[in-house]
Amino acid sequence: MPDSGHRRPPGKAERTQFNLGRALPFLVLAVTAAADVLTPDKERFERFLIAAPALAAVTWSVRGTICIGLLAMVVRALLHLGRDEALVPDLLASEVFLALVTACAAWVSHVRTRYERDLREVTAVAEVVQRVVLRPLPDRLGRFDLHLLYVAAAAKARIGGDFYEAVRVPGAVRIMLGDVQGKGLGAVETASVLLGSFRATVNTAPDLAALADTLDEGLTRYGGWDPESDAAERFATVVLVELPDDRDVARLLSCGHPAPLLQRGAEVTPVEFADPSLPVNLAGLAENHHRIEEVPFGPGDRMLLFTDGVSETRDRAGTFYPLELRLRGWAREPDAELPGILHRDLAAYGVDGLDDDVAALLVVRRPEPVRPPRPGDSAEPGNPPEPSHPAEPARPTS
User: Which residues in 72-85 are b (16+ Cβ under 10 Å) and which e?
Assistant: First the structure.
């Protein structure tokens, strides 16, 4: 799922590479000094000292780069004095050359740190924008637990053409999950328009059919506001779900989207849409009408909503990912761990890993808590109520 808007901490491999880069200048100084001391005088290695400030510019600050350059100059002077050679002109020339290299390295470090600072600022702004467009889902809404897997195909992106939302409305929870045609920033723009339309009307729409109509209308209006954008030219497949509080059912409407999977224990079945609607933004191509399906969805049941980035992942033989079979085998896996298990399995199954946006939302209706019997509760028919206190034994009369 998209993270909370903060930057991800660097991984172990990244930290190792960074620490190695910071250690390299000192390694060059130590190896050069040792080689120069341990070899005959005619063998000269001090010329390699210029690599120390040059390498420092890659990972160290300007001040750190200058300090490493000065350290290299000190090491050069000590090696020269150890040979009892004249201070000038060789030492002076080599020290001036090292000073010039250090100055150049300090300038490179300054440019690098400036660009890194600008990149951090741009990244921070982008992360905030992405968080607003595709906000993290709560773990729980009413009687339902939500567990999300979301991976954008674009490198370094948190948002792709797949989108999702779940909102608590009076008496129910409403969920949307969809997939925009294509990839890239155009698909993200279309997804943001659909998310805005959903959020604007999810509380007031009388049913899922009216909610689906607002998605079409939102893209149409957006195309009129921004004719230069291709967002209104793209279509999207969407599945809408309504989970009422007072009934153990799920109402679903599919706009050309892959059918969600229902799981009761080890039994996994796709939701059957007798008459699915056209994808969003294609309603004008034919007379479109919306049919809402209602299926049982009781305590402990699972429902997996997913995009075609999951179901159309292929292995080397071209075989589609067997999602139903996998879900059946994960019947005993904890709900919260299922998105991570699915992510790892998809990455291992795909011939090129995950080369498409992936979104999968596991919805679980929590079992109702067992309420202990209270005094005054009526007994079962045919059974007399038990006394609240044990009867006292009869006392013998005198």
Answer: bbebbbebbeeeee
Cβ neighbours of 365 (radius 10 Å)? 20
Do residues 365 and 243 lie in contact, with contact meaning Cβ atoms separated by under 8 Å?
yes
With CA atoms as reference, report the closest residue to 346 among 321, 327, 325.
321
- DSSP letter assigned to residue 277: B
Q: Shortest CA distance to 94 belongs to which of 49, 57, 134, 36?
A: 49
The reported pTM is: 0.68
User: Tens digits of per-residue pLDDT, 280-324?
Assistant: 888 655 566 789 999 999 999 999 999 998 988 888 888 999 999
Q: How far apart are CA 213 and CA 85, in angstroms?
A: 89
Q: Report pLDDT for 370.
A: 53
Residues with Cβ within 8 Å of residue 175, at least 6 apart in sequence:
164, 165, 166, 167, 240, 241, 242, 243, 305, 361, 363
Residues near 298 by Cβ (< 8 Å), separated by ≥ 6? Answer: 248, 264, 365
